Amino acid sequence: MAKKIYFLIPGWSGNSPHQNFSLLREHLEEIPGIKVEIAEYLEVSGKFAKFRSKKSVEEYADKVKKDLERVKNENPGIPIVAVGHSLGGLILRQLYFWGYRFEEMILAATPSKGFSRKFLLLAPLAYICKVKIFFQIMPGSKFLESLGECPKEAICLWGSDDLVVPCLSAVPTKMGQGILIPGCDHGLFPHKKEKIAHSAIPVLVEREKRKALPVFFIHFCPSYPHVLHIGS
Q1: pLDDT digits (tens, 9 = 90+) for 30-82
Q2: Strand partners for 231
Q3: How deeply is 18 buried, as exposed, middle or buried, from its count of CB atoms within 10 A (0-12, 13-18, 19+)?
Q4: What is the Cα 138 distance to its own chain's centre?
Q5: Which residues contact 152 (CB under 8 A, 6 or more apart)?
Q6: Beta strands 228-231 and 219-220: pairing type?
Q7: I want to staple 25 with a disulfide (CB 3.0 to 4.6 A). Which of 36, 49, 85, 211 is the partner?
C-alpha cells in the first residue's frame, strides 16, 4: 500500500519523451511506499504541440484538478507531493490559488516571472495561432500577476543553463527553498539515463530517501556534489 504519492504535472510538451517523467517515476517507485501519478492535460501531441494548444492555463489546471481529485479519492488520507515542471509548475500554482494544499509543493523550472524574453519574437505567430498560454506566461502578464506571491512553502528547482526559464524567472521573490542544479538546462527530468546525474532526478530521490530538508544554510549534497541547495 502506498504511504506517499508523487503527483507529477508535466510541462507544455506534455507526455513527450522529453517530459514524460519516465525515469523519475522509475527511481521514485524504487523507494518502498512511494506511488507516482502523472497528470495528463494537453489535448494535442506530436510536433508543434505548443502552437496547437488553444486552452488557457486555468482550463488546463481544471483538467489537472479532476485528475488530482481522482487520485485523492482513490488514495484517501495518503499525503501527496506535487511536482510541476515548467508550465506544470504554473498549473500547480493555480491549484494552490484555488485552495489545494499538499505535503510538499515543488516548482521545477517554473516561469513564475515569465519565460525568457527572447521568445517574445514569437508573439506574432502565437497571436495568429491563438495560443492563449503564450500570452499568459510572457514576462509581466496579468495572469502571472493574478497568482500573487509564490507560496512561501514552495520548493523551487532550476538549472544553471536553462535558456527557456532563466534563473531570474524561476526564482520567485518568496519561496521556501531554492535548489540550483549546475550544468542542467530546462530538461530537469531527462528520459536518457546518461543525463540523470546532472538533473533534478537525484535531488528528489535523495530528498525522499533522507527525509531531511536543509533550510537555513547552503551546502553541497554529499551523494551528488553537483547539486547546490540554497535555503532561505
Answers
A1: 999 999 999 988 877 767 777 778 899 999 999 999 999 999 999 999 999 99
A2: 177
A3: middle
A4: 17
A5: 174, 175, 176
A6: antiparallel
A7: 36
What DSSP line would sit under 38-68, residue for residue? E----S--STTTGGG--S-HHHHHHHHHHHH
Q: Tell me the whole-structure pTM to 2 decimals.
A: 0.86
Helix axes 87-97, 57-74, angle to 10 degrees: 70
Bridge partner residues of 230 (DSSP): 178
Cell of residue 164, nine digits? 527557456
Domain-by-domain residue ranges, the chain? 4-231
Residue 196 has pLDDT above 50, yes or no: yes
Tell how strand 177-181 and strand 228-231 pair up. antiparallel
Q: Are 150 and 113 spatial neighbours (Cβ–Cβ below 8 Å)?
A: no
Residue 207's Cβ-side half-sphere holds a number of Cα atoms within 13 Å equal to: 20
Separation between Cα atoms, residue 81 and residue 140, nearest integer Å: 29
Task: Indicate the residue type of 213.
Answer: L
Strand ranges, E, within the chain:
4-9, 34-38, 80-85, 104-108, 155-159, 177-181, 219-220, 228-231
Residues 6+ apart with CB under 8 A from 173: 149, 150
The pLDDT of residue 89 is above 70? yes
First to last CA, the chain: 35
- Residue 168 makes CB contacts below 8 A (sequence gap 6+) with 113
In words, the CATH class of domain 4-231 is alpha beta
